[in-house]
Design a protein that fits this description.
Elements (H helix, E strand, L loop, with lengths): L1 H20 L11 E4 L6 H11 L6 E6 L2 H10 L6 H11 L7 E8 L2 H15 L2 E6 L4 H12 L4 E6 L14 H18 L7 H7 L4
Parallel strand pairs: 1-2, 1-4, 2-3, 4-5
Helix pairs in contact: 2-4, 5-6, 6-7
Amino acid sequence: MLVVFVLTGVVYWAFRNVGSWLVVADPLKRARAIVVLSGGAPFRAMGAASLYHQGWAPEIWITEGYDRRASEAYVRLGVPYTQESEYSRRVLEKLGVPADAIRVLPTPIRNTVDEVAVTAAALRREGDVVIIITSPPHTRRVRTIWHLEMGDHPQAIVCYDSYEEYDPKRWWRITVEGDDVIREILGLFNAWLGFPAKPKEQLRWTGSTP
């Protein structure tokens, strides 16, 4: 009976605190660039602009999201399709970041693993430290994937923007936070298990689906 009581308490404590556990922030230091990951617009770009003006890096890099189905649908509808990276670029310029300090990494990405690979490839050519800015609950997964895929070199300093609303103490009572936490937990398990779940396009390319 005591064991059941203790286990119940541990599960309850973990459930209440997982929202906070997902949020990490590495100590900042001077880097080659600040990287704005796809998603979270315009808040991640706003956070990157703030770090840029504080002098932590001379450039801001933006990853180029890829959604084949959405882009094809826009083409069929005859509606101009604007990538999120373009909106992030506009936000940065609006906040005073010079155009020549902004760079969109050209390789299209489908998920966080792609973003880590593209960022590391660019960094290896030009430096050894990068600051990655993302949403608060996404930080632990970004750090985990970087360490699993890249190790300690090149180095990624992971931090979050302070503009997005996120309440880690009440995540199970707010639908947006709940969705975020569940997605991040599943993403972490996928990373720890060696990424058995892959983007649909990648499964097609490898012949894993009909």
